[in-house]
Amino acid sequence: MKRLLLCFSVCLLIIVHANKSEAQSLVNKATEAKITALLKKMTLEEKVNMIHANSSFTSGGVPRLGIPELTTSDGPHGVRLEHGRGWGTIPNVEDAGTYLPTGNTLAATWNPALGYAFGAVLGSEAKYRGKDVILGPGINIIRSPLNGRNFEYQSEDPYLVSKMVVGYIKGVQDQGISACVKHYAANNEEVDRGTVDVIMSERALREIYLPGFKAAVTLGGVNTIMGSYNKFRGQYATENKYLVKDILKGEWGFKGVIMSDWGAVHNTMEAMENGTDLEMGSDIGTPPLKFNKFYMADTVVTLVKNGKLPIALVDDKVRRILRVMFKTHMIGDKRTPGAYNTKEHQQTALKVAEEGIVLLKNDDHILPLQKANIKTLAVIGANADRPNAMGGGSSQIKAKYEITPLQGLKNMLGNSVNINYAQGYTIARNQQADAQMIQQAVDAVSKADAAVIFCGWTHGYDYNNWNDNAYDAEGVDKPNMNMPFGQDELIKAVLKANPKTVVVLMGGGPIDITQWVDQSKAIIEGWYPGMEGGNALAKIIFGEVNPSGKLPMTFPKKLEESPAHKLGEFPGVNGTVHYNEGIFVGYRYFDTYKVEPQFAFGHGLSYTTFKYDNMSVQKMPGKQAIVKVTVKNTGKVAGAEVVELYVKQDKPSVERPDKELKAFGKVFLKPGESKQVTLKLDASSFSYYDEQKKAWVADAGKYNLLAGSSSRDIRSVKSIIL
Ligand code: BGC
């Protein structure tokens, strides 16, 4: 009897679990039947109306059948302001929301749980604003420091991207809203993004550029994907047979919607046959709107009527859109309400900034500054006082509020400390150093007990002119990696006046600091840290928060030393870019070719110290392994350490990177406390993509497993024989 009961409850559990996952997945029998019934009732014109845009952010519905329009909104780090059905700004609407830190900051937390929290804020606010799809996350690989959109993306490392993206997607989609992973694929430069043809090896595609997207589909269950503007091996990516039909929908079995980037479709037959489901974009020409002239509009109706295009292709696209609509309660069940600008959402923005800001250098323990020792603090730099929410292009956010670094310091110090602010430089294209402003900054620093300078890159924030003065922005790449606006001269002068000045870099990634790095003692990477960024920076500078962020990309010393520039091409020649560096992107290049970076991938300091001990490896069946390592906080304050586990094949049969990140874990420790971190490896952790076999291969033999605090700071090594 007992046995029977046990069997019954196990069976029940299996059924409940199956039903639950069926409800969460895009495809289930009941929904497919409902979709089939709807398709039967629809005219050809109604179907075609659903597969192209009908305003700047919507695509068509079928009101008579209760099918609504699909409403999308940027973007990766907040719900964009309202543009109505065109591109204007709409007065008197509630569209100032939570402005989260940008993609780099999120990735720098190395905390997938924060990825989930981040996504949940977006999903909830999108729902409140009546959106169905949030156009994020952006996960293109950071191939070159110059890409204008690096700030929106996450990392140079496909494993880190894969881990962070899954949390983000689930966070959004658990709110009943679709995420849209973008831009699929190989969109790694902006300057000629609409036309450039990207040529890379199959191995680079599989090992570097696709894993994030694959994880989004197979592990994240993402509902929608955005095809990119560029060409891939001669054919536009959005309508690319190999990328979309063969890999995304074929190999990975994607059952959701791939929409085009705005205006990224170029050919009706290619898009229809190769799998593009939805053509998005702006109206063509001046009003009246001509969305019916899109590639996937009237032409499709004509082709189907003439028997040149099978209706089944249209039906499949409509079916996919309807699947997403059912899953996100656009049809059928009612949606739960969303929430806007809650304290919790703002706290998530703060938390991500606190965990994502990276302490790059801290000689002589200059940081944290001690409030009690300071009567006057000099704050230097235009970036101290610059809001960033509206910068960068389509990811712009109208923020409910934005705490700039200067405001954050004021909040922290109140009236107890006198803040002496000097702008130091002017943000304007081709602006050179200004002797008078430098003198004002030097004077401020000389009279103060401590000094902080905020410098680095900028975003434009004028909506009508978002590229103006913007180095981190859509549609443009940086001309070089040099500090703009004469900042080098300013920083050198300030460091001369007070060598203990804390330098805070803002922006979407590496910048050349070689002119003064040896003169400086303390450097922080502040990214674009969102609406609470100023508070997070102040807390880190004054030690209320112990930094735990780690670089998600290598900071090279010189641009020429980074692989796309040294071994490859950027941005290409005559409209074609060859990724000659292949799989040697980021630290895979620096560590293999022994090029000393300015700051290594995975680097990030803390106000405490950590000791790694007792590393062990347990081999499991099926080329799996469990790695354990004990981490002890050996300092005086609480802090968090990210244990990074790299795999290095001992005698590879093919060329392989010196080491590759294959697992990581973040652990929070009180002073003196120890915790064991358990990391899992599987066959994919040891594999490379074999172009001949067209398969992933894990050679038999010895592999070294390297546990460390960055790719260049390995603390413990064990090996395993496969
Ligand atoms: C961008 C996308 C964005 C879309 C809609 C395009 O220009 O590349 O990332 O989602 O516009 O604003």
Walk me through the structure.
- This protein is of the alpha/beta class.
- The chain is built from 20 helices and 26 strands.
- A 7-stranded mixed beta sheet has the order 1-2-3-4-5-7-10. It has a 6-stranded mixed beta sheet with strand order 11-16-15-14-12-13, with helices on both faces.
- The two termini are 45 Å apart.
- Residues 1-20 have low confidence and may be disordered.
- The site of beta-D-glucopyranose (BGC) has 7 residues, from loops.
Kindly name the structural category: alpha/beta
- N/C terminus separation: 45 Å
Average pLDDT value? 95
Bound molecules: beta-D-glucopyranose
Question: Secondary structure elements and their pairing?
Answer:
Layout (H helix, E strand, L loop, with lengths): L1 H23 L4 H13 L2 H6 L3 E3 L2 E2 L10 E4 L29 H6 L3 H17 L4 E2 L23 H16 L4 E7 L12 E3 L2 H8 L1 H8 L5 E4 L3 E2 L2 E2 L4 H11 L5 E4 L7 H7 L23 H8 L5 H17 L15 H14 L1 E5 L13 E5 L24 H9 L4 E5 L12 H12 L3 E7 L30 H11 L4 E5 L15 E6 L5 H9 L21 H4 L9 E3 L8 H6 L17 E11 L3 E10 L5 E11 L10 E10 L4 E8 L1 H4 L1 E3 L4 E3 L4 E9 L2 E9 L1
Short description:
The chain is an alpha/beta fold and 722 residues long.
Give short descriptive properties of this protein.
26 strands, 20% strand, binds beta-D-glucopyranose, disordered N terminus, 29% helix, 6-stranded mixed beta sheet, 722 residues, 20 helices, alpha/beta
